[in-house]
Structures are given as structure tokens and as C-alpha cells.
Write a structure and sequence with these properties.
This protein is globular. By secondary structure, the chain is α+β, with helices and mostly antiparallel strands. The protein has a 5-stranded mixed beta sheet with strand order 1-2-3-4-5. It is 31% helix and 42% strand.
């Protein structure tokens, strides 16, 4: 991979494809506000899911999910509240997931549901 931005973009495309294959409806991607960013926002039946995608080419420096620390979680949660308010989506259950993408010889996807709250 040329750089982290390209790696991240490729990981998000893989994650979207994975979610669509599982029946999710993608509402938006790369939702950005002052509070933070959410990579993918989707519906899983009647649950509004906020998804952080982390892409790695190896585990030499740790697993991808480990990069979603408490500070990052807090920013995602605050951003999710902004999305809910802006789109008047108050009648949904909420869930925060992490999708790890490993770009090794064989691409691996690890979906962690309810990763944090």
C-alpha cells in the first residue's frame, strides 16, 4: 500500500461490501463533525449501527481494534448523537461496532459487534 489514507479507503470499501452482504443498509459514510468522525453508519434491521473501520497490513504493532481507545470511542459517541439529532432518528436501538480489516496475503474481516457503549 502506498500510504495509510489509501489503506484506510480500501478497508472502508471492503467493510461496506461486507456489511451489504450481511443485509445491512448503509445510510452514510465518513460522517464528520467538530466532535469527530464516524466511518460508516448503517441499519441492521431496526438497529442504528455506528461503525469504526480499522485497517492494518499486519499485527506487528497490535490488533486494529486496540486503536479505538476511550478517547476515540467518546468522539464516535458524541458524533453519533449529532447524526441522530440532525436526522431525527430517535426511535432506533443503537450499537457501536468495530470492523477490523487485515490486508495480508488473504484479506481478513473481523466484525466486533457491540464493541463499546
Amino acid at each position: 500500500m502506498a500510504n495509510n489514507l489509501e489503506k484506510g479507503t480500501k478497508g472502508e470499501l471492503i467493510a461496506k461490501s461486507y456489511l451489504l452482504s450481511k443485509g445491512y443498509k448503509i445510510l452514510t459514510t465518513n460522517f464528520r463533525r467538530k466532535q469527530g468522525e464516524i466511518d460508516i453508519i448503517a441499519l441492521d434491521k431496526e438497529t442504528l449501527v455506528f461503525i469504526e473501520v480499522k485497517t492494518r497490513s499486519s499485527v506487528d504493532f497490535g490488533y486494529a481494534y486496540e486503536a479505538v481507545n476511550r478517547k476515540k470511542q467518546y468522539r464516535i459517541i458524541k458524533s453519533s448523537y449529532m447524526y441522530i439529532k440532525e436526522n431525527n432518528l430517535y426511535n432506533y436501538q443503537l450499537r457501536y461496532d468495530i470492523i477490523e480489516i487485515y490486508l495480508t496475503e488473504k484479506i481478513r474481516v473481523n466484525h466486533i459487534e457491540n464493541a463499546f457503549c
